[in-house]
Design a protein that fits this description.
There is one protein chain. With 396 residues, this protein is α/β, with parallel strands linked by helices. It has two domains: 2-238, Metallo-dependent phosphatases (Purple Acid Phosphatase, chain A, domain 2, 4-Layer Sandwich); 267-394, Flavocytochrome C3, Chain A, domain 2, CATH 1.10.1130. The chain is built from 15 helices and 13 strands. Helix 1 packs parallel to helix 2, helix 1 (2-16) packs antiparallel against helix 8 (247-264) and helix 2 (42-59) runs antiparallel to helix 8 (247-264).
């Protein structure tokens, strides 16, 4: 996620050199990736959320729709950074227990005498509401999206030339908004993680979405004639190594990494530190497997974080340590050195009982599903397809 912000900044800065009429938006779940944030790394999560907010302010974002994962950081936290950085969070249908809106329902941007209204909407289907309720309990609730958009479009009708609706819901619900409500020019979807090269179109409304994790920047160019006819082009720009890192954002992220490091260490960082790992206990009976493991990237996973000063980043540690924040696994609080790297128990599960009594043997075997917990589609797009080839490198 952070890596994409280096390149997104570069790309948009270059784009603005020739195209001034630009609206930049996000449909939610921008500041956080977790429904539940453990107490041991909530401070890190808040530092990261503030960093992303600062970078988005630097980019010139015009509106951020509130997703349920933003609220995992706490409503007070979001309101504080909204005020501190003057970044526009919007939601027209998240309300408190008095049915009062807790965010601005929309913002209006004036670009070259064209007024653009940007509305934020949270969905009400179980895939959104269940995590939302897990996070906020009964303190907040969500009003009906269709009724809300209908009312807000009517409210904006005489105020703006374009209406954009940022949605945080299943893609199918975006079709309903487009078909049922006149006056919506563009729907920018989120939560559902779909990636659309070609916009969907219904009732003269265009639906776009750019995937997840900041891997792509969606660029929709839309022209509207006096009779309401629209001309639309769209492209998804990959935030790949072909785009240079923005030095200012790199400096922000380097500073963030140093602040995170300070939270969990009081001494200097030791590179290539000699540590007796827990998996060494496996070597007594499984020497052939242990020897193979030592030659894999799994055995060097933690060192790659040290090399990049990310050894205290929970979003990295979850896949570079053994059973991160699970019972008996590596934790942010204790920083168990013996549980660094992707060791035997990362794939085979907690083997405490087996180590105490070798006769206690679990029959469970890891498979591709085990690997996909870390080798996700956005990190390793071809991993599942190439699984047998990957397995050949580590099989034992």
């Amino acid at each position: 996620m952070l890596g994409g912000l280096y390149k997104k900044t570069t790309y948009l800065n270059e784009y603005r050199k020739t195209e001034k009429n630009l609206v930049v938006v996000d449909s939610g779940d921008l500041l956080n990736e977790h429904t539940q944030i453990k107490e041991s790394f909530i401070a890190t999560a808040k530092l990261k959320g503030e960093l992303i907010t600062k970078i988005q302010k630097n980019i010139g974002i015009d509106a951020i729709n509130v997703g349920e994962l933003e609220l995992a950081l706490g409503l007070d936290y979001i309101k504080d950074i909204e005020k501190k950085y003057d970044v526009p969070f919007v939601s027209a249908n998240i309300v408190n227990d008095k049915k009062e809106l807790v965010f601005k329902p929309y913002v209006i941007k004036n670009i070259d005498n064209i007024k653009v209204g940007i509305i934020g909407i949270m969905g009400t289907t179980p895939d959104v509401v269940k995590p939302f309720e897990e996070i906020v309990g009964s303190t907040l609730s969500v009003l009906d999206p269709i009724e809300t958009v209908t009312a807000k479009v009517a409210e904006l009708r005489d105020k703006v030339d374009f209406v954009i609706v940022l949605t945080h819901q299943h893609m199918g619900r975006n079709w309903i908004i487009a078909r049922k409500i006149n006056g919506v020019d563009v729907i920018v979807g989120g939560h559902h993680k779909q990636k659309l090269e070609t916009p969907y179109e219904a009732n003269n409304t265009y639906i776009v979405q750019a995937g997840e994790k900041g891997q792509h920047q969606g660029m929709l160019v839309i022209e509207k004639a006096a009779d309401g006819t629209k001309t639309v082009t769209n492209k998804l720009v990959s935030m790949s190594d072909k785009i240079a890192d923005d030095p200012k954002v790199k400096g922000m992220i380097d500073e963030y990494n140093m602040e995170v490091n300070k939270l969990y260490t009081s001494g200097p960082i030791v590179k290539d530190e000699a540590v007796t790992l827990r998996s060494a206990s496996c070597n007594d009976c499984h020497s052939d497997a242990y020897e193979i493991w030592q030659k894999t990237d799994h055995a060097k996973a933690f060192q790659t974080l040290i090399n990049k000063d990310r050894q205290f980043n929970p979003d990295c540690l979850v896949c570079h340590t053994t059973r991160f924040e699970e019972a008996g696994g590596f934790t942010m609080k204790a920083q168990e050195k013996e549980l660094r790297n992707v060791q035997c128990e990362s794939c085979h599960g907690d083997k405490t009982e087996h180590l105490n009594d070798p006769s206690v043997v679990s029959q469970a075997k890891p498979g591709v599903e085990t690997c996909l917990r870390c080798h996700t589609e956005h990190r390793c797009p071809d991993f599942e397809k190439e699984y047998q080839k990957e397995w050949e490198q580590i099989k034992h």
